[in-house]
Write a structure and sequence with these properties.
By secondary structure, this protein is of the alpha+beta class. The protein is about 40% helix and about 20% strand. Strands 1-3-2 form a 3-stranded mixed beta sheet.
Amino acid sequence: MSAPIGCAVIAVGGDRDERAVLHAERIVEQLRGLLFPAIGPRAMLARAAAGVQHRRLVFALPADTQAIDIALQKLVLPQLDDLVAQLGHGR
């Protein structure tokens, strides 16, 4: 991964300030779909958000360590370089 340092923030657990993070329904549904085989019906309760704040990518993920691992490996990290490039970092 070649994303510049400081271009992404990943927060886990706790309450989020919905004003600071642009809520993205797609990441929630994708995460729930990925979590269901691993944790079963508890996946319905998973919450996540993704957005841009001050030219930084922001990901708010559930506090569950298994959910964090799945979210990072399947959703965030595979797309990070492309997302950073869209923000114009590293140019």
